# Entry
Amino acid sequence: MLALPSGERSLQQGDPDKRGPRRSPVWTVSDLEAEVARLEERIADAGGEQKDHRIYATPGSTEHVTPAIRTQDEARELLQPTEVQMQTPGLGVLADLNNATVYDHENYNLTRMLRRALVLQNGTLDMHPGRRIRKGLAVANVCSGGRDLLSDLPMDLLSSYLDRYVEYVSPTFPILEFGELKNTLECFNKKQSASKSEECILRLALAIGAVFPSPDTLLDATIASRLWREVYNEPSFYEESEDTVRILILLAILSLLEDGCGSTWHLVELVVRSCIKLGLHSRTAAKAASTDGASLFWSAYLLDRWVSCTLGLPVSIQNEEFDQKIPSRITENHTQSLPVSLWNMAYVLFQDDDLQQQEDISGGLSDEEAWKPSMVLYNIVSRDLQVAHAARRIVCGGIDSAPKFEDVAISHLQRTEAIVSNGCTLPWTTGLTTFVSVMIRLISFGHPARYRILLRGSAPDPHYIQTALAIVRLICRKHSYLDRLADILENIQKTGTAGDSMPLQ
# Structure
């Protein structure tokens, strides 16, 4: 409330002596007059008119004071509404205002939110004070000793990690150039300096290559934890840039494979927000017009759909909220078409089109070609997306639509079993989709009741449930928060085929 200058009668009713002590003046009359003049000038610039009904008065003065208002008609004449023709601001103005307020100063803070995402775990969306130091942090704290890991490890071991990343991960997430990674690694070998962002990107690529497709020894997992810790301690990339988006995508991929490296869902949310802040979601933006900008956005989009839909949580950006186009194929080589196929698959996930009708590159390849290193991650992501899509269609269309997705569930389990037989590490998302695939088959054989599935016919093949249980138990070795799902499958395996109903807990 603004305090009136001394000598002026208060506009409030009653005896001023009974209203408590007066506040000291906050604004002077000259300040108020200057503010009113500024507002009128803005109204005039917008095309409106303003009548001069201002009161010019100084403390103790009686000149230029508006006469007292005695009737409602006099008040109505004095307070005539002013018609102001305001120009509607364009979307760009609103976007600039949003960036200047919400993102930078109020709700969005990349440094704080990234720190929180890295200490959370995938098994919960809430912070557990007793579990803030997860396994990755604990191992890194014990083994670090304050030395730079890249200076201690032999170059041939680091090169092998880098080759594995390029061979297994880059075909599905084309966000890094092998030549740039190699140059950064050579700079470390020659004791030359590189930018902080380049160092973080290299460390995360090496960490992913150490654990995917699978760690050969316990040393590989320890090295990955130490590399992740060095990135965790480096705050130089906590401002939005294209390198920041790359680092966040790499952090999200590593958290999918290793427990204790952050909450994937929170990290993916930051990836998408950073893309929006940079304008990569809009094809009219300069950065998004390039192939690198489009690939970054669609890689972030794929991660968002993969993780959010597997968890059954809201996605970070809807299809109608961006106009970035999917890049066309670079060459006829199927390796270059892998991300394009997945991007299309993820894009129709929330549409009415049947995901099974979308192009699946692996379907037209021989078994030998389908299990090349470049196809491993593609198979994992595509099968997870298909099961997530099937689950969503069943929820929307009712349980009677479950039988037509039984082939999706069977194909997912067969492909996952083949990946395990090849000794490949599975992300925690596959543990969830494997469990969902069993539920799809069970619903196809019956209908769910309270805590039970009432079978209409014969139960699914016991070998199917046994295989799914083995896969989930394998994933639980790293991601223990999936133990509950394995317990349910084990209960189904023991009691489900013995009677006419199958308990769920």
